[in-house]
Specification:
CATH superfamily: phage-related protein like domain
Number of strands: 16
Number of domains: 1
CATH architecture: Alpha-Beta Complex
Mean pLDDT: 84
Low-confidence stretches: none
CATH class: Alpha Beta
Radius of gyration: 27 Å
Length: 329
Amino acid sequence: MKKLNQFSVPGPSLPRDNGNLVPGELYLANESRFAETYYSEPLTTYLVGWKDPNNIEATLDFIAPPVDAPGRLFEFKKYLNAEEFYSEVDDTRAINADFKRIEYRGQDAQAKTINKGLTIRLDLDQYPDLDRAQQLATGRIMRRLLRNELRRASVALSALTGAGTALTWDTSAGKDPDQDVLTALISATDDSGIRPNRVLYGEVAWNKRGLAHRAQNTAGGFASSMQTPDQLAAYLGLDGAKVSKERYQQTATTKTKIVPDSVFGFYGEEGAGLEDPSNLKRFITPVEGGGRFRVYVQQVSAKLVDVTVELYSNIVAVATVGTFQLTIS
């Protein structure tokens, strides 16, 4: 019998809740409880210093600069291009009058980051060094998640630029791939008023660029064919040029290029914020405890252990003008 404020309550006393799970008892599962129980601080810390050997994240960040969102549901400004380029001739003030008032309204938009993650199950009989096995599993999941995100970014970029302009870069006379890109940059600047500052080449498009330059059999052609992406970016007046070589397994026997045989021009800012005019942004909500990724380890039975990595992100087209796509054959 337990006494509660001078009253007797029949039945056994409830055990003190010390936060530990008791075998044989039923509990209400929730996200917070799961996080407390299975969160792996060592593996989450391991991801902070982890580096993908193929550096998929660099290409992902080049296409869709990461932006920390203040929460899962958040509001941002869609860039209204015309407002930036309005011009008037009545900006003079008359005596006893105020200056003309102008407004930058933008367009408020709402979005939500999406919870994404993958799990690998480890059998303890296969992995005598469990700590190392968990690290390897964490790295494999991260590479898969980043490849998934890069595919989404590539699809979003293709949708943003439309079908594009078809060009042939081959060994015939008179071909100048870099001039084609310069022409597209000028056209995109006329369209938006803001010059694209990044150009992304699919691997085949980059290869055909070099082939077309070398075939001209001129000093300028040979010199152009030897340029690195950084040198080409300087020549084109860009902040960066990048060649995507990433693949994904499309069928059991076939791999496919993530970025197609095209050249994409767009605007993107490193350290992008909620209101800058980057065409694509990858909004990321920090996971519980901070950071962009979180790792969980759950022993599901005597011999099986699950390793899970999660994140919250969403790739959004913020500004829809001033881009181009050249489809190369």
